[in-house]
Specification:
By secondary structure, the chain is of the alpha+beta class. It is built from 20 helices and 29 strands. It folds into four domains: 238 residues, Rossmann fold (3-Layer(aba) Sandwich), CATH 3.40.50.300; 87 residues, Elongation Factor Tu (Ef-tu), domain 3 (Beta Barrel), CATH 2.40.30; 112 residues, Translation factors (Elongation Factor Tu (Ef-tu), domain 3); 179 residues, Rossmann fold. Helix content is 30%, strand content 28%.
Length: 647
């Protein structure tokens, strides 16, 4: 399909509907208010590069839409001050000049949501920043949009940020695209320049799989082709921007035609006789008596009733918030998904997905993040970055990490199987965010493509001799004693002494030392942040297996990041992880410098050395702190043994 939509003659429906509004106001004000109440709502986004004129365009839309209502407002005897009029007109300069609040900041730095209406439709527009460092804000605004207006400065043409925003808009599933070539007044309203830009953009649109877009030449400042057709561009015969916005299709029909899906937000049980499952219907429709399936358990039942505050319904459709009662007492809780029984969505714990990285701290494979999808939150990690996308050339670049605003395709693993659909099929069950477990900041937005085959082919094998049996045979409780601290703090020395003392007591132990592990299991890893994360992830899994064997595991690793230490803690049963902070000031550790590493780091011969040019995040609430300045290694070891036995 051509990326250049047919340009139909302009629909002069705006004037007609204004006349109809005048007539209704004069003859039947109640009918007018009812019609206004039931208008459809279109959510759209404006995006593009810096200084393409997004805020100016929105100012024009707000200004002109208020002007359309000016006569009707007067007929209703509105106070002109309530709509910001000055001398019978609206101060357009305030709207053009960064929408007041943005004027103080110089640039748009967040998503600004604005509401306006015409006689045919209501609108919510998300004004998103054009600067590259705020791409994450653009993704936020686009995530709920039905339509995207991509602005291009007619003088500048297609820029890198134009391509990035277009790629993201297409990736997020927005299919109704307007290419607004702005500032046509500054290029003499040149048809040749307009079609040159459209041709350049069409080539890029085909590359990213954008099926169609509508190009409109405009001037946000002068109002050309915004509400009325421009006399300066008689060569353009397509619709104005506002007439297209008034008639653009909504997504409701597509959502209602899909199979039924509802993520459970909460279980409503006000009394013993009522148990309902509340949520918003993502897709499809449902009637009492319909068979449904609860995922991930797979249990089937049928709908007993559809309850709302306004009474029971005979049918519920996509977009409605309802409470379902079921005929059977099934195990269903927040995060579960209720689907139609004969067409359920998939359940898996490993996926391929596209990530838009939103954090200044780079993505680290293996690091645990919280993944929020639908109404469920699980622990997840990026197991394998496959490639990063160059938005200019669309090349697939090899990458071990993702930096701020990078777009990449990755494999993701979750700690449990979750119901999902591909983002292209169902954004509610295919879109997710990643959250940093320490700061609770959103670090990425993601879109699931499909489940990895191995997630469905690999199953847990039950065994008869479990960890309790192994521990019972050894007569001890398994544990992981995790020594963390700077290089030279004395971790290995203390851990070795602890193992000697436990061995003398007849305890079954094993010591995992950072240097020793890098001679074998982790010999392929370096000392970048990403490699350090993977180093601790592997050691954590080995330590968990050893505790399953009933052992007391001692580990001596710098393990500089709180997130990875918490990841290991979460692998181990409650009460069996003992974090020991070997607390030694940097100057003391550096003065010891037993291995000569600090000297090399200070000389620039050793990069990413903890404490020098790589951070160490000290534990915030460890089970034990040993101060190696005031305590000898022997005394520190004795305290660790006492703490371990005191459990």
């Amino acid at each position: 399909m051509s990326a250049f939509q047919d340009q139909a003659p302009e629909d002069h429906g705006t004037e007609h509907h204004a006349y109809e509004a005048d007539r209704l106001i004069a003859e039947d004000i109640d009918a007018y208010l009812t019609a206004h109440q039931h208008k459809t709502m279109l959510r759209f986004i404006t995006c593009g590069s810096v200084d393409d004129g997004k805020s100016t365009l929105i100012g024009r839309l707000l200004y002109d839409s208020k002007m359309i209502f000016e006569d009707q407002l007067a007929s209703l005897e509105h106070d002109s001050k309530s709509v910001g009029t000055q001398g019978g007109g609206i101060d357009f300069a305030l709207l053009v000049d960064g929408l007041a609040a943005e004027r103080e900041q110089g640039i748009t730095i967040d998503v600004a949501y604005r509401f306006f209406a015409t006689e045919k439709r209501k609108f919510i527009v998300a004004d998103t920043p054009g600067h590259e460092q705020y791409t994450r804000n653009m993704v936020t605004g686009a995530s709920t949009a039905d339509l995207a207006v991509i602005l291009i400065d007619a003088r500048q043409g297609v820029l890198t940020q134009t391509r990035r925003h277009s790629y993201l808009v297409n990736l997020l599933g927005i299919r109704n695209i307007v290419l607004a070539v702005n500032k046509m007044d500054l290029v003499g309203y040149s048809a040749e320049r307009f079609y040159e830009i459209v041709s350049d953009y069409s080539h890029f649109a085909r590359q990213i799989g954008m099926e169609s877009f509508l190009p409109i030449p405009i001037s946000g400042l002068m109002g050309d082709n915004i509400v009325t057709r421009s006399e300066n561009m008689a060569w353009y015969q397509g619709p104005t921007l506002i007439s297209h916005l008034e008639t653009a299709p909504m997504n409701d029909t597509r959502l209602q035609d899909a199979p039924f899906r509802m993520a459970v937000q909460w279980v409503n049980r006000p009394n013993l006789d009522f148990r309902g499952f509340a949520g918003q219907i993502a897709t499809g429709s449902l009637r009492p008596g319909d068979a449904v399936r609860i995922l991930p358990s797979g249990r089937t039942t049928s709908v007993k009733g559809i309850v709302t505050l306004d009474g029971d319904l005979e049918q519920a459709v996509a977009g409605q918030s309802v409470t379902l009662t079921l005929t059977d007492e099934v195990d269903c809780s927040r995060g579960d998904v209720i689907t139609t029984a004969d067409a359920p969505c998939e359940v898996a714990d490993q996926f391929e997905a596209t990530l838009v990285w939103m954090s200044e701290a780079e993505m680290l494979p293996g690091r645990p993040y919280l993944l929020k999808i639908g109404t469920q939150t699980v622990t997840a990690s990026v197991t394998e970055p496959k490639y990063e996308v160059n938005v200019n050339t669309l090349e697939h670049l090899a990458s071990k990490t993702l930096a701020l605003n990078a777009i990449g395709v990755v494999n993701i693993s979750t700690d449990r199987a979750i119901p999902f659909e591909s983002y292209a099929t169902n954004p509610d069950l295919g879109g997710f965010i990643l959250i940093d477990r320490i700061s609770n900041a959103t670090v990425a937005a993601g879109m699931i493509h499909f489940a990895l085959r191995r997630s469905q082919n690999i199953h847990w094998q039950a065994v008869d001799i479990n960890r309790e049996a192994h521990a019972g045979l050894k007569g001890q409780r398994p544990a992981v004693v995790w020594f963390t601290g700077l290089s030279g703090s004395g971790k290995s020395t203390i851990a070795n002494l602890v193992e000697k003392k436990l061995h003398a007591m007849g305890r079954h132990t094993f010591l995992l030392d950072g240097d020793n592990v890098r001679h074998g299991l982790n010999r392929d890893l370096g000392f970048t942040d990403a490699d350090r994360v993977e180093n601790i992830r592997r050691v954590g899994e080995v330590a968990r297996l050893m505790t399953d064997a009933g052992l007391i595991v001692l580990t001596a690793f710098i393990s500089p990041f709180r997130s990875e230490r918490r990841m290991v803690r979460d692998l181990i049963p409650e009460g069996e992880f003992i974090e020991v902070h070997v607390n030694t000031p940097l100057e003391v550790a550096e003065a010891r410098d037993v291995k000569g590493l600090y000297k090399k780091a200070r000389a620039g011969q050793l990069k990413n050395f903890t404490g020098i040019d790589s951070p160490y995040e000290a534990p915030e609430s460890p089970e034990l702190v040993v101060d190696t300045v005031s305590l000898s290694a022997e005394e520190a070891a004795e305290r660790v043994v006492e703490a371990l036995l005191a459990r």
